[in-house]
């Protein structure tokens, strides 16, 4: 049976194929967009943390007002660090701002910009005392901060006077795609600030999760050598021997709170890194399940829809099939005919769907900075729908192939 | 009448004859309606006018420089700058507003008592009640003289009065905001716009409403948390220039007043930002933003929500097409029987309405199922840590919208198949099959 003839049949029974085409169009739009939203939600769940497992403790942002002070000086933070380091099992401790997984409180984001190319990337800023070691990260290229890099001061001073920076591997690759980042200069804002020198990158450290856990900035972190002085809100990061983590976790509020002069040390919230991460990603997990449900529902709906329509179509054309069979068409021919028809119809729907989807995506991109799913996603979606279509038509097509030739001679 | 009842009877029989496909149509349509309406309700909550019901437009001033792109940060300026603008325009419904959270306690509490550090505090100039339309329950607001003197007086809301003092008769009592004493001179009604637009900062959806209000100039020396930064309001000196967090809000200005406001803002900004000799000064060209424009600039509606709206609409379309397909197949299968009915004298209208009732009833059932699904989705969203969760609420408008959507989808799904069924020519059908 020639393709042209098949097209004619499709044309004559226009309504049903049209419904299938329309369903495929919308199914494709939903599948591809849901898929790409799912991918965005899953990305931070799947992203590597980069920190040693079972070894990190974080404190919630501590407020100096709970110690009856407006700010903490570097001296008091330093003595608190010393006190914590004395707890058995503690390997390293650092006070800092913009700690991993922090949600509220002081979370600092900057847009480091390559001083020469002007290329800028959103990144988290972690500031603290020997953070690379405390977070269990590694310096990949260049060096860690030296004592002369460190500056003791307040938040504003840090922004104005820090001269050295470490950046994560991902940030290095995104800021300097074609060269070594070490020794390069960057700004902390998209445009050079008046009367300020750029920061010099002294080293690149291994990737770790930033606080901004969605989007392409998931591993983009910038570290500043900062000994915090006159800060009202401070976090502490503690790396311990995994076996002793629970013991340290119990003792930490008492030791740290007392050293900092807090009125109610026991109310201090200490979290395991993994728990903080899970809490932070809770929304992503729920959204992922929701989107998976949508994907499943859409798949079922579209398969059932095509099956139903194809079934009706086959039933309507029973006599026609009987005649074909009586005229010599084999069962396989009938089966293939329906499969091929379905293939054509679904392909038409997929092509229309991709076109429509791309037009809408382009419109959204122009108006709302929404990124559209990549072309590969559209191709994959179209392929999935063709497979779904074939699955859906299998039953009706086999029923059609079993129509006996004798039907041609009957009147009903 | 009898005809109508007969049509209902036939529609009912039609549904009963195909329980499986009927159930499928209902489930598919209910899913489509529920998901679409849930997402639209979220979208609506985020885009709704937070100061609805007032006749005038509330506007803020953005101090952008010439040729600069709109930047919300340019609307949040140094305290002294906005103060100057307000001082020069005494006759306008205009106020300087600085907003944040800090610790508020009765003045009698010990200074080192652990307390709730998260009380929402707003420092504003004396015309604030007119600008935002805040109702006073008892006492009085502060005056322009208090603005001038920086009098430590405060107007607090009923809930905070109850929390701090156990009564709402608190006039004359004293509170401590951060470390500074304020005398309560008024109690305001719980002022709660749908979205705390004046404190909107990127993706932060403030939930608690302004509880304690005090004169702008009295904020000197009070340390507040604004967004993620701690700002001493008084020390708005050079070192803390980045810590600017005061805004101008104006209400219901006519064209000439707006012109004057812009002129004044330009002058003040120009004077404020005097460069050292020899450097060309920056040219300011402030503009006015309505609440809506301000919220758009703040990306109050996250892009992800927009994406969800499109996906949900496409999903609804898919569900409707699916239901329409199933119904069309079902109706057209009845060709023979419809031919007989038509031959026996049923009019096209009878056949058409019979099928419309059948599809309409199915969509009504779907709508009824969609309602609890939607409420479930709301409850689910509220338990999640999404920033705007508190804004998601079910109100009558949502229900009406759901009803309208159900009717529309019922028509969309039913009309074409019913029409196809109705145009079956009587004699031909009987003969053919």
Automatic annotation (TrEMBL), chain A:
Question: Carries keyword Cell membrane?
Answer: yes
Q: Which family does it belong to?
A: Belongs to the ABC-4 integral membrane protein family.
Domain MacB-like periplasmic core, by residue range, is: 20-253
Originating organism: Oleiagrimonas soli
Q: Which residues form the ABC3 transporter permease C-terminal domain?
A: 294-405
Recorded hits in PANTHER family, A to Z, give:
ABC TRANSPORTER PERMEASE YTRF (PTHR30572:SF4), MEMBRANE COMPONENT OF TRANSPORTER-RELATED (PTHR30572)
Keyword list, A-Z: Cell membrane, Membrane, Transmembrane, Transmembrane helix
Return the GO cellular component terms, semicolon-separated.
plasma membrane
Query: Which chain regions cross the lipid bilayer?
Result: 289-314, 340-363, 375-394
Q: Which domain of life is it from?
A: Bacteria
Q: Does the keyword DNA-binding apply?
A: no
List the protein's name: Putative ABC transport system permease protein
Write down the membrane topology.
Multi-pass membrane protein
InterPro entries from the UniProt entry? ABC3_permease_C (IPR003838), MacB_PCD (IPR025857), Macrolide_Exporter_MacB (IPR050250)
- Offer an example of a GO molecular function term for this protein: transmembrane transporter activity
Localization, per the record, is:
Cell membrane
What Pfam family is a match, any one?
FtsX
From TrEMBL, chain B:
Would the keyword Translocase turn up in this protein's UniProt record? no
The record's listing under Pfam families reads: FtsX, MacB_PCD
How does this protein sit in the membrane? Multi-pass membrane protein
Q: Where in the cell is it found?
A: Cell membrane
UniProt cross-references to InterPro entries, sorted A to Z: ABC3_permease_C, MacB_PCD, Macrolide_Exporter_MacB
Q: Which residues form the ABC3 transporter permease C-terminal domain?
A: 311-422
Q: Which UniProt keywords apply?
A: Cell membrane, Membrane, Transmembrane, Transmembrane helix
GO CC annotations, alphabetized: plasma membrane
| A GO molecular-function descriptor | transmembrane transporter activity
**MacB-like periplasmic core domain: which residues?**
22-188
- Coiled coil where? none
Q: Which domain of life is it from?
A: Bacteria
User: What residues form the membrane-spanning segments?
Assistant: 307-332, 352-379, 399-419
PANTHER family attached here? ABC-TYPE MACROLIDE FAMILY EXPORT SYSTEM PERMEASE COMPONENT 2, MEMBRANE COMPONENT OF TRANSPORTER-RELATED
Q: What is this protein called?
A: Putative ABC transport system permease protein
Q: Which organism is it from?
A: Oleiagrimonas soli
């Amino acid at each position: 049976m020639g393709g042209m003839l098949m097209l004619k049949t499709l044309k004559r029974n226009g309504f049903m194929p049209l419904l299938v085409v329309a369903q495929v169009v919308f199914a494709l739009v939903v599948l591809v967009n849901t898929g790409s939203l799912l991918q965005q939600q899953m990305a931070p769940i799947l992203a590597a943390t980069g920190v040693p497992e079972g070894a990190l403790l974080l404190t919630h942002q501590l407020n100096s007002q709970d110690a009856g002070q407006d700010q903490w000086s570097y001296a008091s933070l330093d003595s608190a660090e010393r006190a914590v380091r004395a707890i058995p099992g503690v390997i390293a401790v650092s006070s800092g701002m913009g700690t991993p997984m922090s949600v509220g409180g002081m979370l600092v984001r900057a847009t480091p910009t390559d001083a020469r190319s002007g290329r800028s990337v959103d990144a988290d800023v972690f500031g603290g005392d020997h953070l690379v070691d405390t977070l269990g990260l590694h310096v990949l290229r260049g060096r860690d901060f030296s004592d002369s890099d460190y500056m003791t001061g307040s938040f504003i001073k840090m922004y104005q006077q820090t001269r050295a920076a470490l950046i994560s591997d991902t940030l290095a690759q995104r800021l300097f795609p074609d060269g070594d980042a070490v020794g390069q200069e960057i700004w902390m804002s998209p445009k050079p600030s008046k009367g300020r020198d750029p920061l010099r990158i002294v080293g690149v450290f291994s990737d770790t999760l930033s606080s901004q856990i969605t989007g392409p900035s998931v591993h983009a972190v910038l570290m500043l050598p900062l000994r915090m002085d006159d800060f009202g809100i401070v976090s502490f990061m503690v790396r311990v021997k995994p076996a002793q983590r629970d013991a340290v976790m119990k003792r930490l509020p008492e030791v740290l709170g007392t050293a900092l002069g807090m009125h109610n040390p026991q109310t201090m919230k200490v979290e395991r890194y993994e728990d903080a991460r899970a809490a932070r990603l809770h929304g992503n997990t729920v959204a992922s399940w929701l989107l998976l449900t949508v994907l499943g529902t859409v798949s079922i709906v579209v398969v059932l829809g095509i099956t139903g329509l194809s079934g009706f179509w086959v039933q309507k054309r029973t006599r026609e099939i009987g005649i074909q069979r009586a005229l010599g068409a084999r069962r396989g021919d009938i089966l293939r005919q329906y499969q091929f028809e379905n293939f054509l119809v679904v392909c038409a729907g997929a092509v229309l769907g991709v076109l429509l989807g791309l037009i809408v995506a382009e419109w959204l991109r122009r108006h709302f900075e929404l990124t559209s799913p990549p072309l590969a996603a559209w191709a994959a979606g179209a392929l999935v729908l063709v497979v779904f279509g074939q699955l859906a038509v299998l039953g009706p097509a086999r029923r059609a192939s079993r129509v006996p030739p004798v039907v041609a001679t009957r009147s009903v | 009448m009898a005809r109508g009842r007969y049509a209902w009877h036939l529609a009912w029989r039609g549904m009963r004859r195909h329980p499986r496909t009927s159930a499928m149509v209902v489930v598919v349509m209910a899913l489509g309606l529920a998901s679409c309406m849930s997402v639209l309700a979220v979208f609506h909550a985020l885009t709704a006018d937070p100061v609805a019901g007032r006749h005038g437009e509330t506007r803020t001033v953005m101090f952008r420089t010439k040729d600069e792109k709109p930047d919300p940060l340019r609307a949040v300026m140094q305290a002294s700058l906005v103060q100057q603008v307000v001082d020069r325009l005494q006759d306008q419904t205009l106020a300087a507003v600085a907003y944040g959270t800090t610790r508020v306690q009765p003045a009698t509490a010990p200074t080192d008592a652990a307390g709730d550090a998260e009380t929402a505090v707003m420092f504003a100039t004396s015309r604030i009640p007119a600008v935002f339309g805040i109702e006073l329950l008892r006492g009085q607001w502060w005056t322009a003289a208090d603005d001038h003197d920086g009098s430590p007086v405060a107007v607090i809301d009923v809930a905070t009065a109850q929390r701090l003092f156990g009564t709402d008769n608190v006039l004359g009592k004293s509170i401590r905001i951060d470390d500074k004493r304020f005398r309560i001179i008024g109690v305001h009604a719980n002022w709660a716009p749908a979205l705390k637009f004046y404190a909107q900062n990127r993706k932060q959806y403030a939930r608690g409403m302004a509880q304690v209000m005090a004169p702008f100039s009295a904020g000197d020396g009070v340390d507040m948390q604004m967004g993620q930064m701690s700002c001493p309001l008084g020390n708005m000196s050079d070192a803390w220039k980045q810590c600017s967090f005061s805004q101008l809000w104006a209400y219901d200005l006519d064209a000439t007043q707006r012109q004057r406001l812009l002129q004044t803002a330009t002058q003040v900004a120009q004077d404020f930002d005097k460069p050292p000799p020899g450097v060309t000064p920056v040219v300011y060209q402030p503009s006015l933003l309505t609440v809506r424009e301000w919220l758009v600039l703040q990306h109050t509606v996250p892009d992800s929500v927009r994406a969800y709206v499109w996906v949900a609409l496409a999903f609804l379309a898919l569900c409707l097409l699916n239901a329409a397909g199933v119904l069309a197949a079902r109706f057209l299968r009845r060709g023979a029987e419809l031919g007989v009915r038509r031959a026996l004298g049923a009019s096209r209208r009878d056949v058409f309405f019979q099928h419309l009732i059948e599809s309409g009833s199915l969509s009504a059932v779907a709508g009824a199922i969609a309602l609890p699904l939607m409420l479930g989705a709301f409850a689910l969203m509220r338990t999640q840590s999404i920033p705007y969760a508190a804004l998601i609420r079910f109100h009558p408008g949502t229900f009406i919208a759901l009803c309208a959507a159900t009717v529309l989808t019922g028509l969309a799904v039913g009309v074409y198949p019913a029409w196809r069924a109705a145009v079956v020519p009587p004699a031909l059908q009987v003969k053919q099959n």
